[in-house]
Design goal:
The protein has 15 helices and no strands. The chain has helices at residues 10-40, 43-70, 73-96, 102-130, 136-164, 167-185, 202-214, 217-247, 252-274, 282-290, 294-301, 306-334, 340-368, 371-388, 393-396.
Amino acid sequence: MPALEVLRLPSFAWYFTARSISWLGTSMVGVALAFAVLGIGDASALAQVLAARTVALCACLLVGGAVGDRVSRRLVLQVSHALTALTQGAAAYLLITGQAEVWHLLVLESLNGAVSAFTMPAMQGIIPQVGPRSPLQQANSLIAFSRNGLLVLGPSLGALLVVTSGPGWALAINATTYLLALACLSRLRLPHRPRSGEPTTMLDELREGWGAFRSRRWLWVIVLAFGVLNAIHTGAWGVLGPVVATSDTHLGARGWGLAVSAEATGTVLVTLVLLRVPLRRPLLVGVAAIAGFAVPLVSLGLRAKLWPLLLASMLGGLGMETFGVGWNLAMTHEIPEHLLSRVSAYDMLGSFLAMPAGQLAFGWLGSRHDPHLVLLWAAAVFALVSLATLLVRDVRDLRCDPTAASGTPLSSR
């Protein structure tokens, strides 16, 4: 099947369009929200707003996963998109009219984080439903290509709006993108999902999801490993990266911005390749590729010049996205569709909990030791933990057919 043939499927096309539009708005939020908070508060206020969103997200994530498996995922996405538009629209109104205070944004972003806990598991679980006759790898690669491309474009667009119109208008556009995505979702038709008689309560369903999660050794081994890898990525790269870039006069803020863009460019390029190159052993290839993210960490630690750092960053992005596509392929191929949102929620919870811990830990380490040396140790641990997962036979031997259908088509609603 040609790489873009999956877009001929109406359900996938509407879902892909809705997700791309909402991602465009979401990719602008980081820049817009940061400048919005800093315009009325200080760095401590920004940390409080971001932390409040993360805490609300983690607190609601398992419930969001259970709901995504319990009711129509289209309905979950429609409601969550409407609520996101409402919260971001309220924040935009307060900022544009000059009435915003830090506590307003803290409350609204907490609500937004709670809503995201329902959005993300439903988005992951819906993929086999919107493309029942399509190759799974093509569907996941197209979604990744859209997301990564918008992550390159969105922050720049958000910054432009902040400078020319103010952060409130950037948030207003974010709210509008969710309304447009909601309109696309109204055209989405999903196959009917018959429910078994048991389990009947949400707690029972969470237990069932946990049982599915822990019964697959390849799954919980990878999630445990990524508790370490995500902490290093967000801490060493996200926190210490800007610190050493600004202290190294040959890089500076401009050089760091180019390095981050190079990482994103690597993710875009590899998705173009993966639209055509099948991953028959997705975890073996993905884990081996992600170990390459140690290279940009080493480059920073060794005070590399700009061009070697850019090449290393691109290689790191390539490895990260190769794993991402392989992981999503393994999940949608191996996890029964009726359990996918719940299992994805356990996976996401393990990832999100590690991120703030990594940021705090590496901030502490970088303030007490030479950050360049900390980066070199972080690179060594990242590579070792990545490659150690391949010692687990279930990880390295898991096989998928990337051209297989994601499920038997069922009667349409």
